[in-house]
Amino acid sequence: MSQSKKWKTVQAKRDKTVRVKTARGRKLSSTRWLQRQLNDPYVQEAHRKGYRSRAAFKLIELDDRFEFLKPGQKVVDLGCAPGGWTQVAAERIDAEKNPNGHVIGIDLQEVEEIPGATLLVGDFMDNDAPDRLKEVIGGPVDVVLSDMAASASGHPQTDHIRITALVEAAAYFAEEVLKPNGWFVAKVLAGGADADLLKQLKLQFQTVRHAKPPASRKDSSETYLVASGFRGKNTFSDAS
Ligand SMILES: C[S@@+](CC[C@H](N)C(=O)[O-])C[C@H]1O[C@@H](n2cnc3c(N)ncnc32)[C@H](O)[C@@H]1O
After folding, report:
1. Where is the Ribosomal RNA methyltransferase FtsJ domain (predicted)?
2. What's the pLDDT tens digit per position in 33-78?
3. What residues form the annotated binding site for S-adenosyl-L-methionine?
4. Strand pairing partners for 120?
């Protein structure tokens, strides 16, 4: 076999074995994944604007529609790596100039510094994570964001159970830290939030909606829960 034929066989084999899982657990070969990234206008735009992820545009589109980010707010960003949502939130709350504006993020992975943000490394599902966050937050917050997603297992039911656990924990945390009239925005999977969670959120918030921003890929089963008008009582007010 000629050298170039051998190389083509090696490439074809590598292409078959190196596969990337999409959010739905569908497998793409590394070349198809790369092609999709290169052809994706959101990836190009993120690169141009200096956002660390194309996901930044999901938050931009959600906020353009619902207008929950305002200058001077305190925002929590759960599952913040690599930092696209934190960058957008910090910009929109004017965290660099407004002394009250601040974003507090947490992720399993370390995130490079972002002006106007405090970024913690850790598992939000750990027992001590909510208290670690509350210590940094120091008082009630205006918005709790969660874009947390466990890596796709390829088994839809398992993925659904994992993301439901994450969003439930995020909602429970939001109810502990939100100011009256605060917002909770979280990623859920197709079909929307679990019925019990939705029932609970409808008691705690004036409005609960589902939205799929255009930047969310059509082949992804993710959608976002947007809850506004928190009417519960945060634990900070209990303490005062
Ligand atoms: C889709 S990415 C978030 C992208 C981010 N919003 C952005 O714009 O750059 C999902 C993130 O959730 C994080 N994550 C998943 N489970 C987590 C957990 N239990 N605690 C903290 N972060 C978690 C992952 O590490 C991953 O970085």
Report:
1. 51-230
2. 677 777 888 999 999 999 999 999 999 999 999 999 999 999 999 9
3. 83, 85, 107, 123, 147
4. 106
